[in-house]
Write a structure and sequence with these properties.
The chain is built from 13 helices and 13 strands. The protein is of the alpha/beta class. The strands form three sheets. It has an eight-stranded mixed β-barrel, surrounded by six helices. It has a three-stranded antiparallel β-sheet with strand order 1-2-3, covered by helices on one side. Strand 9, helix 8 and strand 10 (310-313) form a beta-alpha-beta unit. Helix 1 (66-80) crosses helix 3, helix 3 (109-127) packs across helix 4 (131-139) and helix 4 crosses helix 12 (376-384).
Length: 430
């Protein structure tokens, strides 16, 4: 369809799901078409992810983004309107060069990722394709509806309770299609809420919409979830509803040891602990089980558990292709979590997905704890064909926006396969 010519770039400071500012961007082409995107923000962050530009000072507790917005409407707008762009990679590389700092610290990763997502939508529109189809074409992948991983119970940095593990998710691996998977997840979520109320444990919600009861031990959370699955009449396990954990171990590692539910554990003891949990509960995926700087521990845990669960790196990889390649070489995980705002541009995100696929790693596309109504990650998960998305609870508008976008894609593409690629061979319709 030719090059993309940009006539105008706008930006605005808006609020995310936690009530803090973030960056929204609009890009208008010379054909008059406008594409928008909004940057998310994380609470549990890796040390090496793209840097958010925050204002400091008294407004919004220092979390304002007026400087990031000014960068978009100033330098970035001048760049993008200065010439036609042949591809998203062309524009993203120019953005990276314009910033000129490690981690995009000068213009802010929150500014560059919003611009990059809007640009991706503009290129897809220019090509006359839905965003997910355009992404699949760029990656050379077969699009696929992902298994949703619903965060039904929160702890760690996402909740005001004593539970050290951050996310307890349910994953309808055995659902026949995406609409049924969504129903299963919603029913388990509501069954869990009813159970907590009966037990006198009902309390607030965590950042991602999961329940946050006043419990401290991971086993308590897992028992509550198992009970909720049973209450729905669904099967627990890979043929029904499996469990995925994101302990987010950075948050309970003090530099020398892991502190979980009053116990002090070494890397080896943490691996043994996870092995016991996996033996007792239908856990299929384990994300950030160890701290990001515990390299020997990651390799040992992966060797011990890789045949039993998916070992996902988030903080340790921060959606960085070279970090993923190194982990593939050292066998220090089996999958990568994908968050575009960790990388700072969509192009770098797609490069990380490509590195994972070429190295035999799985990938799970993810939202952030500070989210917006933007549904980019839903299209990204489908276009990448990775078969996995986590976007919080099946509740709260900023979370359900992603799940509802997948319903739209499913309705518009009845032949699109659903599920994990390696679990659905022979079941695909495409």
């Amino acid at each position: 369809m030719g090059e993309l010519e940009i006539e105008r770039v706008r930006a605005l400071q808006v609020l995310d799901s936690r009530g803090y500012p973030t960056v929204r961007v609009w890009i208008q082409g010379t054909d008059g078409h406008v594409c928008a995107a909004t940057a998310p923000s994380g609470a549990s962050t890796g040390a090496h992810e793209a840097v958010e530009l925050r204002d400091g000072g008294p407004a919004y507790s220092g979390k304002g983004v007026t400087a990031a917005v000014a960068g978009v409407t100033g330098e970035i707008a001048d760049l993008l309107t200065s010439r036609p762009w042949s591809s998203l990679a062309d524009a993203d590389r120019a953005l990276i060069a314009l910033d000129g700092t490690p981690g995009k610290a000068r213009l802010g990763g929150n500014a560059t990722v919003a611009v990059s997502m809007a640009l991706a939508r503009a290129f897809a529109s220019r090509a006359g394709a839905p965003l997910h189809a355009w992404i699949a074409e760029v990656l050379g992948q077969q699009p696929r509806l992902p298994v949703p991983h619903f965060n039904v119970l929160n702890g760690g940095q996402h909740a005001a309770n004593p539970l050290d593990f951050q996310e307890f998710m349910v994953a309808p691996l055995g659902a026949p299609d995406y609409p049924e998977a969504l129903r299963w997840g919603a029913e388990v979520y509501h069954a869990l809420g009813a159970s907590l109320k009966r037990k006198g444990l009902a309390g607030g919600l965590g950042d991602e919409g999961g329940f946050a009861p006043q419990i401290a031990r991971p086993e308590e959370a897992l028992e509550l979830i198992m009970g909720a699955i049973a209450d729905t009449g669904l099967a627990a396990g890979r043929d029904g509803v499996a469990i995925a954990l994101d302990p987010a171990a950075n948050s309970f590692h003090d530099g020398t040891a892991y502190r979980v539910a009053g116990s002090t554990l070494t890397s080896e003891q943490m691996t043994d602990y996870y092995a016991r949990l996996i033996g007792d509960y239908p856990i299929w995926s384990l994300e950030d089980p160890l701290a990001e700087d515990d390299a020997p521990g990651w390799a040992a845990l992966t060797e011990a558990l890789r045949d039993r669960v998916q070992v996902v790196g988030d903080d340790v990889f921060v959606t960085d292709a070279e970090r993923v390649r190194e982990a593939i070489r050292t066998r220090s995980a089996t999958a990568v979590l994908i968050k575009p705002n960790q990388a700072g541009t969509v192009t770098e995100t797609l490069e990380t997905l490509t590195a994972a696929a070429r190295g035999g790693f799985g990938a799970m596309v993810s939202h952030r704890s500070g989210e917006t109504e933007d549904t980019f990650v839903a299209d990204l998960a489908v276009g990448a064909g990775c078969g996995q998305l986590k976007s919080g609870a099946p509740a709260r508008g900023e979370r359900t926006a992603k799940y509802n976008r997948l319903l739209e894609i499913a309705a518009d593409n009845p032949g699109l396969p659903y599920g994990l690629p390696r679990l659905t061979e022979g079941r695909d319709h495409a």
